[in-house]
């Protein structure tokens, strides 16, 4: 028996192909893409060398991801299934109403931005991912037309096999290969479909980056109020004119400098 959360070796008689660490393969007419491993910042950026991990998914490298992206780019939205060991970050963005997820589970803080980029590029019909201890099926979401038509993705998150929660760890599919379907059939948007969560997150980030600093930091104090504080405490007020004081002695100007400096310090603090 394999340990809880791990799959045992598939017998050779079953005839199940091995996809390797990262791959795009055609299996019985289905275009299947796969990225093995999880994100680790030092290894992904090259500051630390990857090492094999016994009993768990290894860490993928930047070269692994770039190689897979090149394969996905050539398919132009005809990926039937994408398999990953991680959820994409922000997968629930764009869904209205309560989510059928545990209260302590935060999808915006879980998952990988790298996987989000892969889904956005591949636009698979199905994305099946592990990495969490829960089962979750998201409402379908559509990707904008990049030239080959609109594409719709259905996300399925699977729990580990043998987990104490007994959450669903298997999912069966019956698919006609995208290569055998009419383009119009691939572009059908089902009822309840939402915009791509990754496009929504990117649009929000772009909006925040373009917003002026005042809009992010909050409203600033009106300039008139600051000027009023300074003018009220200025020695120039006694001269009858704020901007044109009468001729004064050198000692008077020194006192003026000390007093104005103190007032500006109060305003700035």
TrEMBL record:
GO cellular component: post-mRNA release spliceosomal complex
Superkingdom field: Eukaryota
InterPro entries: Cwf19-like
Molecular function in Gene Ontology: RNA lariat debranching enzyme activator activity
GO biological process, one term: mRNA splicing, via spliceosome
Name of protein: Uncharacterized protein
Annotated organism of origin: Volvox reticuliferus
